[in-house]
Design a protein that fits this description.
single chain; 163 residues; alpha+beta; Beta-Lactamase; five-stranded antiparallel β-sheet; 6 helices; PAS_4; PAS domain-containing protein
Length: 163
Amino acid sequence: MTDALQEVQEFHWMMDMLQTVDVGIVVLDRQFRVKIWNAFMESHSGLLPSEVREKSLFSLFPDINSAWFEKKARPVFELKTRAFMTWEQRPYLFKFPNYRPITGNEQYMYQNITLSALTSANGIVENISMMIYDVTDIAAGNKQLESLQVTQSEMLEQQQRIN
């Protein structure tokens, strides 16, 4: 097999992996236009890659606070650092419905998000990647635990007043 053919096959495998991984992957340029939109995002948003490509993230999702998001993303572009958004800070960036409504009590998907710089061959960052992780089960478990702790604390206080 030639090197060129092998490289094409490896590229195909990588693209297939990006489409089938159970994580949302979005690539944005400096104007926050969508460049890449994987199958996870398509499935949960109902929007095809062809519908979102070259469109502003903020026009597609007007609920996203553009000033806040741009403030989070600027250091990624300028300093080539990562930025993180956790469900504890903000339950979700994309208001996707919880796709397990029978087993879960949450209406929307809780998300952790990582922004990473994508450096071009000339060392300049023109795009960033956004990886969206569904952490609904973790968030729901933590919320249940907190609720149990509050209930237990209230019961202990009530018991101490009785004694």
